Amino acid sequence: MTAQALILFGHGARDPRWAAPFERLQLILREQLPQTRVELAFLEFMSPTLPELVRELAGHGCDDITVVPVFFGQGGHVLRDLPPMVDGLRLAHPGIRLKVAAAVGEDDSVLRTIAAYCVTSMQP
């Protein structure tokens, strides 16, 4: 049986309040995906890191993991930092299917939702 996990991967910040929207997104996704572990991981400043979380998930039997970079675009962290990290995780955990999605801000539906928010923010 395949155990699935979805990792929301963010940059991280020194101020813990920065993570609040990520935590809300995590709760929404947990409601929508009750059979899937939905977790947060961070590049820096916050924990767990992506390697720490993948190691934990592997220890709990998750063998199908999707990483969604919650970044507005495919910048340096997504293009330069994430790929070697994922390559190392694939080597360390060869029994896990590890998929990486594009950064959320690259998706047209996300951009349309942000655009709609911008339009409504102009309303009196």
From TrEMBL:
Keywords: Lyase, Metal-binding. It comes from the Bacteria. The keyword Amino-acid biosynthesis does not apply. The keyword Hydrolase does not apply. Coiled coil: none annotated. GO terms for molecular function: lyase activity; metal ion binding. Pfam families: CbiX. This is Sirohydrochlorin cobaltochelatase.
